[in-house]
Backbone:
């Protein structure tokens, strides 16, 4: 149900009939204040300007042609020529009743199905996942879930960094450690420590450094023993990230991993292709693409090294190969990347080269969706007290234990086991919602107290709003699934809630088009706030509430619970029946 679109089509038709050229759109938007109606159409003003006519008079003509019977109870002109639309309560109630048993909450599948390849999470395997990977992982996953729900074909690509010079030192160190420890699981239990030790030896021991360099070459030329060690290393790191994904309730699986090494075979072809097209040129022994379109202020073209003088390939080369694969093999219509804003230039460079060289189809949409940094209370990038990187797994565990402590202060009739489960969902949900609810591109300050609060736009608040509706049904002794829908909208709070509930499809459309999950977060927060106002104004279980009113209000409550349930699931945040 796309109310915006329904209104836009009707208004545009009236504009046409009033003689306004078809390239002027209705510009339907939510009204900011109740006195301006529920929606407004602002498209007449620019049309009047162009046609050099009085906008109010033109709006009158549009209004005369505008047929919103059934949908609207009032339409009026405001200010210089805005059209204010007040939706009809009967029509809204009708929509809610018609879609009452629809699990999709009146969100229709998209008509234009696209193949969306989404690159997210993509950690470097040499290290344990740290907070730097949180944003890419959960923002990407929220957008992926929304795209899939809309009916698009989504192909997840976890572009793990599993290849590069550092693996020489890692496998050399692994080889030595295995001589003492004998099993890789034990040796690599602490990936971070392992990396540190390997690096230290590389810096301090000349013999070891030589061996490490030798192993890189061997590994790249396919030496069986080096490859076996490497695979052992990769397997354990992958298992580690799988654990984090599970903890985070993120949908990535092993099948979604297509690591950098998957493109090794194609790298030389990419270079040859770029040279043949005259895009890559020799520069001090290296192969470089100079991009005029990304020139700096002095007009110097932006250089992108695609092959080192020794013949080695780079991060950019792999990304070019990945772009080709996603376009030509996976047949992506959209290719979305969730990567830190600091890689914007890199993405811009590879996108430009890929399009210019024809490595990707012309029609493909290449989108880097950057995000800001998670900051500590001191306003600097989030670190441990001693300045180290914070391991993601540890951060999540801490959130769960903090949630458990908070829940222990509240009175509940939960068993110990249920309590633990609730703490887990609240703790993980809190971290995710705090992050997802900020505008993607801004930096934000990580604050335990705010994110775990039961007030304001937080996961616990939304989870609580959901459980509260469940408890109303328990109190009423009615099975929420059995209720049938006969909603009537009387109080203004009921109408406001109804309109919001029916805006889910419009909201999701922007969320996926612009890859902005925070819009879904604020939408859900508005839904719960409007529900709370409705709940206060319209008693449900009071003795003197009429049976028909009680029924209607319960039905509206059920709709709300379903929207919260669906919305939170699209954000990857778990719900519970009791809290
Ligand atoms: N592994 C990279 C990093 O940790 C991110 C990779 C993002 N994806 C890509 N196709 N470049 O910085």
Residues:
């Amino acid at each position: 149900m796309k109310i915006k679109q329904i209104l836009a089509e009707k208004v545009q038709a009236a504009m046409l009939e009033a003689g306004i050229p078809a390239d002027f759109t209705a510009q339907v938007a939510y009204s900011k204040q109740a006195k301006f109606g529920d929606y407004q159409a602002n498209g007449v003003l620019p049309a009047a300007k162009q046609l050099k006519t009085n906008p109010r008079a033109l709006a009158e003509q549009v209004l005369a042609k505008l047929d919103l019977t059934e949908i609207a109870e009032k339409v009026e002109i405001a200010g210089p020529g805005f059209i204010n639309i007040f939706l009809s309560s009967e029509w809204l109630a009708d929509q809610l009743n018609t879609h009452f048993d629809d699990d999709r909450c009146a969100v229709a599948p998209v008509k234009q199905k696209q193949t969306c390849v989404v690159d997210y999470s993509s950690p470097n395997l040499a290290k344990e996942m740290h907070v730097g990977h949180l944003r890419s992982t959960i923002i990407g996953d929220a957008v992926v879930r929304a795209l899939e729900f809309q009916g698009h074909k989504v192909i997840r690509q976890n572009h793990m960094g599993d290849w590069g010079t550092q693996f020489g030192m890692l496998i050399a160190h692994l080889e030595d450690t295995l001589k003492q420890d004998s099993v890789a699981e034990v040796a690599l239990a602490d990936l971070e420590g392992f990396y540190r030790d390997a690096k230290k030896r590389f810096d301090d021991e000349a013999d070891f450094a030589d061996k490490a360099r030798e192993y890189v070459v061997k590994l790249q030329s396919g030496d069986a023993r080096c490859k076996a060690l490497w695979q052992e290393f990769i397997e354990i790191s992958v298992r580690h990230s799988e654990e984090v994904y599970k903890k985070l309730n993120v949908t990535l699986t092993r099948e979604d991993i297509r690591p950098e090494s998957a493109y090794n075979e194609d790298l030389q072809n990419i270079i040859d292709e770029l040279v043949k097209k005259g895009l890559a040129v020799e520069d001090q022994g290296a192969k470089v693409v100079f991009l005029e379109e990304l020139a700096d202020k002095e007009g110097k073209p932006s250089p992108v090294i695609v092959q080192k003088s020794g013949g080695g390939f780079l991060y950019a080369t792999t990304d070019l190969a990945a772009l080709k694969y996603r376009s030509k093999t996976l047949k992506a219509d959209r290719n979305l990347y969730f990567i830190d804003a600091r890689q914007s230039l890199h993405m811009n460079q590879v996108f430009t080269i890929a399009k210019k060289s024809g490595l990707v189809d012309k029609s493909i949409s290449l989108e880097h969706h950057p995000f800001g940094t998670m900051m500590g209370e001191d306003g600097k990038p989030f670190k441990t007290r001693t300045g180290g990187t914070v391991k993601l797994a540890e951060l999540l565990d801490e959130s769960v234990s903090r949630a458990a402590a908070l829940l222990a202060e509240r009175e509940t009739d939960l068993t110990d086991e249920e309590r633990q489960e609730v703490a887990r969902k609240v703790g993980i949900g809190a971290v995710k919602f705090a992050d997802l609810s900020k505008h993607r591109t801004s930096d934000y300050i990580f604050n335990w107290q705010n994110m775990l609060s039961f007030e304001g736009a937080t996961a616990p608040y939304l989870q609580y709003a959901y459980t509260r509706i469940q408890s109303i049904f328990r109190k009423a002794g009615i099975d929420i699934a059995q209720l049938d829908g006969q909603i009537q909208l009387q109080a203004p709070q009921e109408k406001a809630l109804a309109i919001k509930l029916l805006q889910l499809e419009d909201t999701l459309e922007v969320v996926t088009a612009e890859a902005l999950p925070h819009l879904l977060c604020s939408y859900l927060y508005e839904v719960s706030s409007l529900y709370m106002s409705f709940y206060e104004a319209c008693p449900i279980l009071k003795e003197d509430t009429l049976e028909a009113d009680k029924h209607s209000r319960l039905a509206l409550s059920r709709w709300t619970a379903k929207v919260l349930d669906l919305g939170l699931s699209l954000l990857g945040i778990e719900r519970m029946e009791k809290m």
